[in-house]
Amino acid sequence: MPECYISRVRIGRTKDYGKKMHRTLQKYFGYSSFRPLQEDIIKDVLEDRDTFVLMPTGGGKSLCYQLPALLMDGLTVVVSPLISLMKDQVDSLQASGINAAYLNSTLSYSEAKRIYREIENNEIKILYVAPERLTMSHTISLIQKANVSLFAIDESHCISEWGHDFRPEYRRLSFLKRKFPGVPIIALTATATPKVREDTIKQLGISDCGTYVASFNRKNLLYKIRPKKDTYKQILKYLRKHRGESGIIYCQSRKNVDTIASRLRRDGFNALPYHAGLSDSRREKNQEMFIRDDVEIVVATIAFGMGIDKSNVRFVIHHDLPKNLEGYYQETGRGGRDGLECECILFFSRGDRYKIEYFIKQKGKKEERDIALKQLQDMVAFCESTVCRRKVLLAYFGEVLEEDDCGRCDVCLQPRKKVDGTEEARILINCISELNQRYGMNHVIDVLCGSNAKKIRDKKHNKLASHGAGDIHTKDRWMEIAREMIQQELIKVQGARYPLLKLNKASMEVMNGKRKVTLTTIEDTDFEEPEPAERMVPDKAVASPGKTKNNSAPVSEIKWTANRDDGLFARLKQLRKKMAELQDVPPYVVFADTSLKQMASKKPGSKDEMLKITGVGEYKLKKYGETFLKEISNYCQEQEESSYNQNSVDDDPNSEKENQQNPACDTKETLASDPDQKREKILKTISGLEKELIILTKAKLDENFSEDEIRAVWSEILAESE
Predict the structure, then answer these.
(1) What is the mean pLDDT of residues 308-331?
(2) Could you tell me the domains of the chain?
(3) Looking at residue 2, what DSSP letter applies?
(4) Cα-Cα end-to-end distance for the chain
(5) How far is CA 408 from the centre of its chain?
(6) Which among 356, 511, 588, 619 could disulfide-bond with 311, CB atoms 3.0 to 4.6 Å apart, if both were Cys?
(7) pLDDT tens, 535-561?
(8) What is the C-alpha to C-alpha distance for residues 586 and 671, in angstroms, rounded to an integer?
(9) Model pTM?
């Protein structure tokens, strides 16, 4: 999709913000350079200009209002319909040293009262609020008293009746321009057709806004389509290779969700279900456990994922066929939000297509049925494509990909064998012609394969010259040939509800011998496509972006690294988990996987080196830097020592013998009968936790408390206990 920017004459004020913007980006967010479009958008906002931003999930929309909020004098009000996302965003901002809060139905009266007071005292920079709450007279009165500098409307497509997620309460936001005419509005969304975009801009009263449309190309997502055969066995094989990674498995039915989640638990995986049939409390608990890395896998219907900002989702598996490419794009977009690789695997069968078609045909309005059927056809065409999947996906959203080989999908990773298919093409075209172009793919191929079904005999199609002419291939192979010919525009499909095969100019060229046809053969492998040579790890500095063929929104340059120490990465993940639990936030709020993987690769030894890690800003450096640097140092020292001493105490045969002579049951019996020994063991255990407790205590306090001061108090407590 081409980048679109409605330019205006700048009044020059943003030149004063240039250095401040980059300084703020580094200090609070830990980045040294902006992603594509971000800098221009932020400059528009700082010029008090209304702005509309269409940017896919993971593109960095939030920064477009969070950073200017820190440079503007007053309060930034963010409208969001997703309560869970509000909490995640506020947790992340607070973890970076930014005063942020939210107002929604989850707050108690006293909590809401405290936030009102902080707003009145100008203590909050960014306030998240649900649209229903913002339209209340009390809230309007409150923000009228505050010095509001910016309104940010997230998920702004909800304001349009033409959108797929229209919400009446969003429609009422049109009052903002009337009551606050001097306050700029930035409207943001990850999905909007041109019609929805125009309606959103009109309803918000920002017709003179700057409009930015980013690329839909998520380069860190790896797209794979697999045949739906022994599906659970294939999933199990994949998960065993990726044990310990976070992922989502999508299913169309609640029954499939419960069945797969249960089977995975029996097979030793920490998996939980999520669907509308569960109680609210159970859904909330399962979602929270996934967000906080207490469970690795969630098996869910498409209801799962809205409002989740979990950055370290490493795989998204579709057990069943999605209904349309919009939904598929949105669901796969929940993976790899940290910029690291995420595999998106879809198990495809035409049986799923027929199930979806059945439900579509139950719709009451013909227009709705036709739209849904066309969307389903596009989804199936994506799955059956023999050309780059990324190219097909981006083309659906109106974006042209310059490369024919993206290197990040199963088609490009495993090129198909090309064969001369001119004779097969002529046989198929001739059959369509003999049937007067009045039948769909299934009927045409049944005739070709010589079917004697009743419908064939009743129409006397068993008498045609084409009947049985295609017995050189199976029906499945003819279906593949027909679909590929459609993609090459050698034949076409016409009609939504009853798609018919039709001929065109290219068809005649093939029949007249003026055009050769090249087809591809697809080998059925068992989940063994070649992997990309290296894993993606974004560098601290985002370099100058590249552009797609039609000057579409640029994509970030990526640095490739392959020297990560997995042992250190695991240690840092454990430390992050402990810090997060103490602060009652998801682990990625402390540091994203991107940051930990770079730490495990570069092994920073000083605060200056730590500041070069992606996502490490000055505030997080003060809060967590010393703790993580010490963990890295300890790990490196242990590795060095172990290289000189291969025989650990655990490997000592004398120690083994001693353990065999003193079984654990004897120890338990002794402890059970001797309270003093119990107390001594408890004290020793507590004493051994000194390192962890000091780390967690320091994280809870601010940077004014050193580890030595905490250790001194801890020693006093232990001395008193003894």
Answers:
(1) 90
(2) 13-213 (3.40.50.300), 221-413 (3.40.50.300), 417-521 (1.10.10.10), 566-646+689-721 (1.10.150.80)
(3) B
(4) 69
(5) 16
(6) 588
(7) 444 444 333 333 333 333 333 334 434
(8) 38
(9) 0.70
CA 153 to CA 80: how far, in whole Å?
7
For 128, residues 6+ apart whose C-beta sits below 8 A from its C-beta are 78, 80, 86, 89, 90, 100, 101, 102, 103, 104
Task: Map residue 636 onto helix, strand or coil.
Answer: helix
d(CA 35, CA 614): 13
pLDDT in tens, 463-515: 999 999 998 999 989 988 998 898 788 998 887 667 899 999 999 999 999 99
Least confident window among 24-33, 272-281, 362-371, 445-454: 362-371
> Could you tell me which of 299, 317, 141, 298 has the C-alpha nearest to residue 228?
317
Are 638 and 623 spatial neighbours (Cβ–Cβ below 8 Å)? no
Contact 133, 60 (CB under 8 A): no
Helix (H) or strand (E) holding 127: strand 126-129
Helix (H) or strand (E) holding 368: helix 366-384
Query: What is the residue-wise DSSP string for 495-538?
Result: -SSS-EEEE-HHHHHHHTTS---EEEE----SS-PPPPSS-B--
β-strand pairing of 417-420 with 518-521: antiparallel
Specify the pairing of strand 271-274 against strand 297-300: parallel
**CA 632 to chain centroid:** 29
